[in-house]
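Predict the holo structure. Ligand: zinc ion.
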Amino acid sequence: MIKQEEKNIAAMSYVLANKVIVVDPGHGGRDPGKIGVSGVPEKEINLEVSKRLATVLGEMGAAVILTRDTDIDLSDTSVQGSKKRQDLSRRAELANERNADLFVSIHCNGFPGQKEHGAQVFSQPNSPESKILAKCIQKEMAVILGNTHRKAKQVDYFVTRTTKMPAAIVEIGFLTNPKEDKLLQDPLYQSKVAWSIAAGIIKYYEEKEKSRENSGVNEKDVLKTFQQQPGNHIPAP
Ligand SMILES: [Zn+2]
């Protein structure tokens, strides 16, 4: 007998099979990102969570590309100009060149004062698909982590404007909040965050699947039509 858990994993693998997902650990190398109240640089936490997310998505059948897997930035030292912009451009180009299905960038938030807390997901305005993706991830993070009441939000960012596929920036928590700063450095919590983002991505694909079924081109209907009216052409999906 198949255990429920195995069934769940089989179902998840189905929605992520053949999907190319770019996981982008924000900052790196010369760019530390925000500095936590404890002194931890954002780039380190982003990388830890991104690696875990890549592993989980890979186990679920996706082909995962990490924009970096060490402490580097992606700017070109031989070219003049803004290193920050070059770094961000390269991340987006990587996803576009590989024709990725999804782009997910991992960051930590910061705010003056220590009160603000909770993960929040951002997507590009005027991208309905990205909005659904951001909402799905936000919802799963809220349920699984149980410590954010924030809502997914549309904001114009260079990297999500430049990527051609549905994209989201996940701000996994506030490094300016002492409690969250500590939590985000906990390997177990990092795994939980990664898992919650993966769950959101699965929900996104499940929703897409559902809307495709509801659009009337589901396989069973096509088959029924074919059986009831032999000789007729099967309508193109
Ligand atoms: Zn950042």
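The helical segments are 4-16, 42-59, 83-97, 128-145, 158-162, 178-183, 187-214, 219-228. The longest helix spans residues 187-214.
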